[in-house]
Amino acid sequence: MSSPLRWILYPFILLAGLLLMGVAVIAIVLVLTYPNLPTLEVLTDYRPKIPLRVYTADGHLIGEFGEERRSIVQIEDVPLVMKQAILAAEDERFYQHGGIDTLGMLRAAIMNLTSGGKKQGASTITQQVARNFFLSSEKTYTRKLYEVLLSFKIEHNLTKDQILELYVNQIYLGQRAYGFAAAASIYFGKPLKDLTAAEAAMLAGLPKAPSAFNPVVNPKRAKLRQQYVLRRMKEMGALDEKQHEAALKQTLVVKRETNDYAVHAEHVAEMARQMAADRFPEDVYSRGLRVFTTITRADQAAAYAALRRGVFDYDRRHGYRGAESYVDLKDVKSDQDEALDEILADIYGGEDLSPAIVLAASPKEVKAYRKGGDLITLSGDALKFANRMLDEKAPPNKRIRRGAVIRVQKDDKGAWQIVQMPEVESAFVSIDPQTGSIRALVGGFDFNKNKFNHVSQAWRQPGSSFKPFIYSAALEKGFTPTTIVLDEPIVFPASVTGSQAWEPKNYDGKYEGPMRLRTALAKSKNMVSIRVLQSIGTHYAQDYATRFGFEAEKHPAYLTMALGAGSVTPWQMVTAYATFANGGYRIQPYVVRDIRDDKDQILAQAQPTPAGIEELRIIDPRNAFVMDSLLRDVTIYGTAARASATLKRKDLAGKTGTTNEHVDAWFCGYQQTLTGCAWMGFDQPKDLGKGETGGAAALPIWINYMAKALKDVPESFPPVPEGMVSKEVVGAKGPAKEYFYKEHAPEEVPEQQAGDADSKPVD
After folding, report:
1. Band (118; pLDDT cuts 50, 70, 90)
2. In the annotation, is 90 catalytic?
3. What is the mean pLDDT of the chain?
4. Nearest to 670 by CA among 638, 640, 693
5. Which of 71, 464, 472, 529 is catalytic?
6. Model confidence, pTM
7. Whose CA is closest to 82, among 162, 189, 185, 202?
């Protein structure tokens, strides 16, 4: 071989040798590495982490607990538009390549060489599946090699549809959403099958950067990414020109509150979560357990609306407190500055109490920027509630001025008005008195603001709402509805109380002399209750109250028990009142019906003990009958007369309660099919304000709930039990039939007393 030719061939020979060596090295790596790749069992037997979900009794989701919010969907149930959007955004040639898109890699390489902008990637959907299931996120050549090899292995063992199904269910899309089905619900509040092209494109744009393109956090960047995906869908033929234009113009309604379920039942969901975690502690948040509670959507919605209305009404009665806080607006350049949203992002919103920043204020007009992007102008009636704080003489630290943080809410006509975040708390719970199943439970005004469950955890004084249990005890000691008791002042010296002299009073400070027991309960006369308790004995009454589920140590055996000076929870009170509603039986309240696995197999189930089982009887059926009669008078002409007048029915029974200094306001009552208890007060006990009695603050909540819950329920009254006799009496409303225990029936019914006359009761 001539010398010149040799020098020409040497480079080619060297290059060929290097290529052969490279191929050999790659072959060795493949031979050594491929057999050591992880098995694909995690893909072929796909078992994702499915969160614990909590439902109402009628199947509506009210809570979800777990690191990953996920809904599994089969590939055939993924709509075509969603598939097309995913392919357009992530891997247009998915159904053509073998796991690695060489054309895509070349295109990305050319773009990276010719563009001075951001580097282009070329990961296929198969590579992303390999990465999500098996690999870390580190960017090394070794990890990239494993990713390529795993992609080939996945393509060799699974069909394209199987791979796409894994991707659709596994990919992270922000807001703790894993998979497109979960994302459709979280971002748009709808099932995957109902997505439009515009919505599908928005979701398909998320995998690239779930935080940067999140429509909740970064709506503008999310919109740009969506437009890119829509353009790619048009280029690949998934959308024609008309469809593309329509998708671009569609206004997307993104759910900004990510915990928005079918109904507000956060306290119930938390109670259910705790029960499930106690029962199945190992993998409670990942095995797909489903907890079905006893509440119904309609009852819970009615209770939630009634409580919030009651709290808002109370709040308005006590006036506007002023600006919530102030922010510095010196760096805000315009009324639409993005800095305003950044400031508001740190301020808790609440469901319907939108925070807003005041941009300009005068006694006649307020301009404010609302969280979410609205610029609103308030004037006229919208300012009435806050008028006092618009005056220049208002306290500087409360006056509404530029930079003030206020709350706004839409009224019934859809107009914005100034409101405020209430400070008072409230609770409501209702129960089926025949079975013990909880029908509705609202543990506080706003779970996200205060997670404390006032229904089950708040120990408060019950005030006069405890009197029925004293009266029930008295019936067993020979008292009757017509027994005459004095309503006049009484003083107990220190030698009797053991500490200091006690001079109790009626709520209104008025005394009406001798009156029947029936009238005394309807008018909530403290002096009568004290004398009744004194007569039957405090220790007897204390022991008797435990029959209803009250704890003896929470109700010391003193005469103050007659005024409800002990401690109870709304949970205890609704359970106790259910005894009068069901004819004398102690039922056990329960809020979880059953717990099921992901295959709908029941793992645990409540075992209720319904009323009617004699072993559960705690009071004489005659006692329950008489107490029902007495408590119905409370709702007809007593301290809760508003109940019967508003609901236009006579089968309601219950009792108001107001503690000293208006610290707690109660109403507990029932109809034979439903028992409910409402409470209002401050977490740090203080005066609710003059006139804020159980009848003014708590009763309206109960009424508004019952108005919906009893809408189609006919009136019903308990039958007269055996062992009773009736006599004609003259009552406050004229002649009436009164029932007595046969052994306690008087030969002659006492004549009507002065105190039995009709007068306006107050409690």
Report:
1. very low
2. yes
3. 89
4. 640
5. 464
6. 0.85
7. 202
